[in-house]
Amino acid sequence: MSILEKNHSSTRAELISNLKTCQRNLKEARDSLRLDPVNYKLQVSLSESLRKIIELHNYLYYVLDSPSIPDYEYDKFFLELRELEQCYPNLVTVHSPTQRVGAAPVLKFSQIAHRVPMLSLSNEFEMDAVREFVRRLSGQLGDKNIEYVVEPKFDGLAVSLCYENGFLTIGATRGDGEIGENVTSNLRTIKSIPLRLRTSSHNNIPALLEIRGEVLMLKKDFIELNQQQRIKNEKIFVNSRNAAAGSLRQLDPKITATRRLTFFAYGVGKYIGDEIPRDTHSNLMQYISANGFLISKESDVVRNVEELLTYYRKILDLREQLPYDIDGVVYKVNSLTQQKKLGFISRAPRFAIAHKFPAQEVITKLLEIDVQVGRTGALTPVAKLKPVFVGGVTVTQATLHNEDEIKRKNVMIGDSVIVRRAGDVIPEVVGVVLERRPDNAYQFTMPDRCPECGAKAIRMNAEAVIKCSGGLFCPAQKKQAIMHFASRRGMYIEGLGNKLIDQLVETGLVSTPVDLYLLDEDKLISLSRMGKKSAENLLDSLRKSKSPMLAQFIYALGIPNVGVTTARELARYFNDFNKLQKADLETLQKIPDVGLIVAKSIIEFFADHHNIDVIKKLFLIGIKLIENSDAQKIQDNNSNLIAGSIFVLTGTLPNLSREIVTEKIENMGGKVTSNISKKTNYLVAGNAPGSKYKKALELGVNILNEGELLELIQN
Ligand code: IVH
């Protein structure tokens, strides 16, 4: 069980009973005040009850992420407290929730010397370095079974929060580790930072407790902030860490208050108080959590090097889904006595290391900007880069999205740029290192003609996108349309790669998807580098591709804004291609995943007579759709156990990559999710499976190895 799970079950019950007590006190104070409105003691009691209720709801909302009342009810408590404090300013306390924002702007932050230095961690990238770390510690401690706490390594900025007699008094940035900046007023605006410790309501208040942790911006808040910045035509932040740092270091706390920041605790600095656990880090973290702080749900305790590495892989897999950015995991010896024994070397502890993930962001030089034409004719500026290793691959180009984005990011040719590649996302240029701009850097301008066919490039109304007006006369659009049609998630024409498509379009053999099915051996052999055997193979896969599932076919058509998921939803809803073709705007919008824009795209697509012509011809040459009902029948016959089933993958499969497995399952109508639950039908387990394996056993979920999965697929 993770460190948090152990804790929250108890705090939740406790919270509800606390809330009830506060509500009772509130009612009593209100009733008595009606009879005796100027009684100071009663006013204090009313304001304190309101504060406690607000704090409890804050905690439920910002820390436990499960609010128990609607916003307007919370607002009513808040307004009541504010009015009371305005009438009787003597009632105001520094820890009152009404006092989170309000401090005046400063000209400069003052300096704070940390009571205990804020150290850094030594970074490791290799599995072997982790093995060495464990070997070294086992030797030094003479213990073969050291326990470790494992946590994500938050990608934000470190701060220290001092609680004196339960109240937040000072908060500071890490600075150089010895001296940081006093950003207390800004930290007070962060709702996941309690202004007083939760145990302060219980009598055993520590005289001093210094909480260490990371201020960060959740991914969703970062995306929203940048969207707002775009609308206001203001600075775009390169990543969530810069956004968090920029927001926390505002001289005016009112600005910080408008930025949604979150604080995660990961340790303590100096502390004085008998009730603070002194045995293990995990108990310390539970104590911190019980005091109202957010700690990572992913924290856990493990017992050997293999478990450390399994945890690393698990979190690497989870990285994209976590609500915040991380750049690795941290391993810490759990026993505080053992920590003390191991001590420190220079600026880092010996008892902990950071095991970093491959970088998702790097700096490289922007050599040139090319313009590429997409399937729908959109002209996309693409940065040609000095090759650079990022997110696990070598990247030579990255998207710049559109002209407006280039201006907003102030990117020039010759600049040193920050390139990001996260997960499966296309690499993108996220910003510029202005200090490194050379004198000869120059601005990019978008061409007014399509670089592929010379047709006029036009800006669609107020959209940022500029499009080639050449339609399917434009060879680039033709090629892209065919690539999309033939792709794995589309008609899945094996052996029809991009180079071959280029040749087929350039020689005029293929202009539309229909032409693919009119190819014969003679035509194919006329191409360079095409032998008899390859021609036969291609014709064979073309034949095989003639009976796609309805969803595959819809996707293959390349209707703008209709991706794999939408295609699947459309197939599920209509179950019949004709019905889809005739659907009106209103019907389309009833479908999950389809909004007005997508619905309009679909209508426009089927209103175009070129498209209708291609579709008709496709059916004429013998495309036969397997409609969903057929898929259902197959499933009913028990011959396809995959359609409709939910799969979860864990560990490394010996032969197949996760992408291929996912694709196979999805192509057969199954679903792959990341979290295991009672709804999961199968867990596919490879080598070194993660905690999902244990959970599957607990839940009684079917467990398959690679071979068994393949059997299921082939059946
Ligand atoms: S423990 C003795 N735990 O990493 C140092 N640090 O390189 C104790 N960080 O400045 C740090 N997530 O800002 C620790 N779960 C985590 C962390 C974490 C991020 C940062 C922290 C620190 C840096 C150390």
* Fourth-level CATH superfamily of the largest domain: DNA ligase/mRNA capping enzyme
SS-based structural class?
alpha+beta
Number of self-contained structural domains: 5
Small-molecule binders here are:
2-(butylsulfanyl)adenosine
CATH topology name of the largest domain: D-amino Acid Aminotransferase, Chain A, domain 1
Shape: globular
Number-wise, the strands total 24
- Give the distance, in angstroms, between the N- and C-terminal Cα atoms: 37 Å
Give the helix level as a range of percent.
40-55%
Instruction: Note the main sheet.
Output: 7 strands, antiparallel
Mean pLDDT over the full residue set: 90
Using only CA atoms, what is the Rg?
30 Å
CATH architecture of the largest domain: 2-Layer Sandwich
Instruction: Return residue spans where pLDDT drops below 50 for at least 5 consecutive residues.
Output: 631-639
Continuous helix count: 27
